[in-house]
Hints:
It contains five helices and no strands. It is an all-alpha fold. It has a domain of 77 residues.
Amino acid sequence: MKLLLLIGALLLSTAPVQASNKTFDEIMKGCEISEEAFETCISMMRYSNARAGFTVLCKLRQASEIAPEVFEERVQKAGRDLELEIEKLAWNEGVKDVLKDFPLCPLKPIP
């Protein structure tokens, strides 16, 4: 059985990977096509920022590796520059997803 798993893993490791030859600037040009595309890109950035940043903070808090006052300070600073409603919506979705993984983490969506 182990041999079968090893063979499967070897086959997967030899599968070709399609690498992108695009630069970051070329990727970002898609965000400049229209106002809707720009808002979509900004929203995904806000979602990713909230999800990644708060995941780290909640993990640190859960492990007691960050002081409660430092945690609160970081949370208060985060999300201050959200201007568009769509940014707030995406940010709050990121917060909700973090709370699914860390239900005891004291995060609140932005009103």
